[in-house]
Backbone:
């Protein structure tokens, strides 16, 4: 793969995707547009961008995109602000990449994502999946993890921390479909998806996400 574009490289899963991609000799260049500067690396192109006003640039033309953009309602401050990040920014960046000829896209979505859900988070993820499908990528993979288990976050999420503790305690009793999943395993699934670039639309459900 000559060029891989990573969106959301500062997030919990995005950091893992970035680390694995930079360590992969089959990836020649990683482009990771972010709001704040990342640690330099010989393979890394790190343009600083405002996702509300994405620039025209040559680096949108890539072999594949891995998208891990996302926030929480608490951090965003309102349902509208949450949707702007998890839906609007994702689709805006996807349109730029698709228009530049990038054929392959993989999204870190969520278990239970559905445009018809009554839950804001799951509905937004589902609507984002629908929007991406409409763009016509040659290969679109939607990875749907359950609760993410990846160590302490920079932002405090008490409910998620309690949920993880309960999931770990009851893990033997929880069906694989619902078990918490390590962030490095989600990153591996996303990278495998863009390496394989299966034609059409594909889903990787939580039970299919396995450690690298």
Residues:
């Amino acid at each position: 793969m000559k060029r891989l574009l990573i969106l959301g490289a500062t997030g919990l899963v995005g950091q893992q995707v970035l680390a694995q991609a930079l360590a992969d000799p089959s990836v020649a260049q990683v482009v990771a547009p972010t709001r704040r500067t990342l640690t330099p690396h010989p393979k890394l192109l790190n343009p600083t961008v405002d996702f509300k006003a994405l620039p025209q640039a040559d680096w949108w033309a890539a072999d594949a995109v891995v998208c891990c953009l996302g926030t929480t309602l608490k951090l965003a401050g309102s349902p509208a602000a949450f949707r702007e990040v998890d839906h609007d920014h994702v689709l805006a960046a996807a349109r730029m990449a698709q228009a530049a000829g990038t054929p392959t896209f993989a999204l870190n979505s969520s278990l239970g994502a559905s445009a018809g859900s009554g839950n804001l988070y799951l509905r937004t993820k589902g609507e984002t999946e629908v929007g991406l499908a409409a763009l016509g990528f040659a290969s679109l993979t939607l990875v749907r993890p359950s609760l993410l288990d990846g160590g302490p976050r920079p932002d405090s999420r008490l409910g998620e921390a309690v949920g993880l503790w309960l999931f770990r305690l009851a893990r033997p009793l929880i069906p694989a479909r619902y078990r918490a999943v390590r962030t490095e395993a989600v990153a591996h699934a996303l990278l495998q998806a863009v390496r394989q670039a299966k034609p059409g639309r594909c889903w990787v459900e939580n039970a299919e996400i396995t450690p690298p």
